[in-house]
Amino acid sequence: MDRLLIRGGKKLEGELRASGAKNSALKMLAAALLADGPVTISNVPHLRDITTMIELLGSLGVEVVIDEKMNVEIHANTIKSFKAPYDLVKTMRASFNVLGPMLAHYGQAEVSLPGGCAIGPRPVDQHLQGLAALGAIIEMNEGYVKATVNGRLQGAHILFDMCTVGGTEHIMMTATLAEGTTILENCAREPEIVDLANCLNAMGADVQGAGTGTITINGVPSLHGCAHRVIADRVETGTYLIAAAATGGRVKIRDANPEHLEALLSKLREAGAEITSGADWIELDMHDKRPKSVSLVTAPYPAFPTDLQAQIIALNCIAEGTGTIKETIFENRFMHVHEMNRMGARIRLEGNNTTAIVEGVPRLTGAPVMANDLRASVSLVIAGLVAEGDTVVDRIYHIDRGYEQVEEKLQNLGADIRRVASN
Ligand code: UD1
User: Fold this and answer.
1) Global pTM?
2) CB 389 within 8 A of CB 8
3) Quick check: is 117 catalytic?
């Protein structure tokens, strides 16, 4: 298992390019199962979660061709099996999203119940209720969900009980091949959902309203192949902006979309950063200052994303003042807090572990740390970058799930970081 060794205390300075959005690309790979012709997705990030999804498609018999620039071409019509095995689905929750597209296109699908990050119970009841409303016959057996339909799925009016990104995307994709109109209400509004809808429409679907609370899908009998470029990864972009701010540095991120990061950018300004941006770039300059603490509540888009909560806590650790961070999306998403406290941070959890009160200290000290979730792990890297001395971040396979070339990108910004294989 690899580890990252970080010698803290270097200011991050320089430029980097944002990768394509993992959370868009994963869903598009699943959506390609809806099409009769080849779907080509470009700007796909080179990540473990993407490899897992491609392996999953391969295990179904779907031919996937990848070129050296990570353009991924998916030929769903070579499909031979309709069963997504536990071994692949357990490592990544997004793989559950192959269920609906296979069902809508081929009338049958069997997918293991998902795994994913260890961040609280993450049920799929909204996915299953949505599929059932479209006419799927659903059976659960030995950890697998088996869905079948006689003929085509039927359009329906569906009101989600809660704001769910994966649930909205799953039912939106599936309904594209249903007969008649589907209206989804209380939808999540994340930019990745809009990106997926644009990809579906390029395949010949008729999806309206993505990015708002109500999405209307007029079903079509079939979808064709298409070419689509994935949007920039706003979580990756946000992570590097926070890292630069925490070190008092300056970073310019190219191929990024500032509109998707408004909640973060306003918090970074509050922390004392100077931020400038254009249509596809964002620059942050901290002018060598210590950040000021910020307080926030995570909530569905366009509010502050849960996927940047751990990173902003790392910034608060060394900021001036006390910040309160409330997590409302996932239970049990403060595992990084205990590791940061081992590095000298002063964080206490309140409100049944839903709120972290972070009292900023002038400096952290390096320590061996580990985390068992993607965003928590990268937040420990940020803590390591601002700590005095050496930090070893263990179990970084979590980081490799979501951050492309993390150590190269940080090295280019001047960080003292390297990867070592542990025994
Ligand atoms: C997606 C993102 C993840 C992000 C999250 C919230 C991907 C691959 N992952 O995850 O990075 O942190 O959105 O922005 O896109 N829930 C239910 N029942 C359901 C579905 C969800 O109770 O059927 C709950 C979850 O347990 C959670 C909340 O709803 O508490 C939000 O989950 P959801 O938006 O579905 O997250 P994901 O799609 O899994």
Assistant:
1) 0.97
2) yes
3) yes
